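User: Batch of two.

Assistant: Item 1 of 2:
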Amino acid sequence: MNNEPNTPRIPLQARKMARWLGWGGILPFLALAMVSAWKGPEWAHTPLIVYAMLILAFMAGAHWFAVVSGHRPSANASAELVLTNILVLGAWPAILMPTAWACIWLAVLFVGHLFLDAPWRHISGPAWYRHMRLGLSTVVITALMLGGLIGLGLQFNQGQV
């Protein structure tokens, strides 16, 4: 039941699907980050970086929609739109970085998006979505950061850093 003011009622089936898709989307982050960190096959590195970039762009697009549709009233709407573009464009260099550094860079960008979106504030959507977003972002940021740091640690131990 949704008893928050000014929040559209979301059918239970849609909420369940959003949760399923959201948490299911975490699996590639966890699997690819760990495979890449532990010097897994080279093919696993590029999909991790590309997947992270796609999800960041998706989240920025969702933020854009919320702002331009009026679902997220903000005195800083123009700045928020520009910042989402900066985050997405800022992800491009990750394609050219070594995997460990790319993971850390993308984790920083996801932190930036998390603070821009601020799911702990009421204007970010219904409570169930805000809680899910905070949990998903925390796992993504942790997976990317740990994958990057483990990868750097392994490189350092092998004298490659």
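Item 2 of 2:
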Amino acid sequence: MSQQYSVLRAGVDGELDRDYVLTRISQLASKGAFLGAYGPTRDDLAILEDILNRAITEASALVFKAARGHYGNVSIRGNTRYVRLDISSSITYYLDLKKAMNDLPLANLIINAKDPWDAMKILNSRGGVMTELNFEEEVYRYYRTRLKIPSPEETYLMIKEIKGRLRSQSQLVDR
């Protein structure tokens, strides 16, 4: 197992508030877990730009936009969320996993997971936590049946549906 983990583009995907993410990183840094940070170079941005011309990825496009100097609020997910964007939105933070582990309850739940699907099942069953893998599987099912990528609005509805389904399952387990 790797002894470090990375926090990419704090708050850019709109899942967690940027200030919350940066506060958590600072809290972990106060315990000696901060290993460093990295911002993309011009060469990195050239590669990212090439990728963005071939792939659909909203969060990575925002990192590119931030690294190119955009400052201000940006709507994402089909205008269902807004995120604050600036040069710091392009930074990746590196943390020492051993020093941070005591403060990461969800990571502790999945530390012995066999694979990403096992980790997803654990998180889904313990409090109904939705993962990116839940979302990716839903997008895949959508694509397989409709032969198109969902719009941002459809994506937002998918996320709401997944979270609702997990909440319902969690309530059944709690009974």
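The first strand starts at residue 4 and ends at 8.
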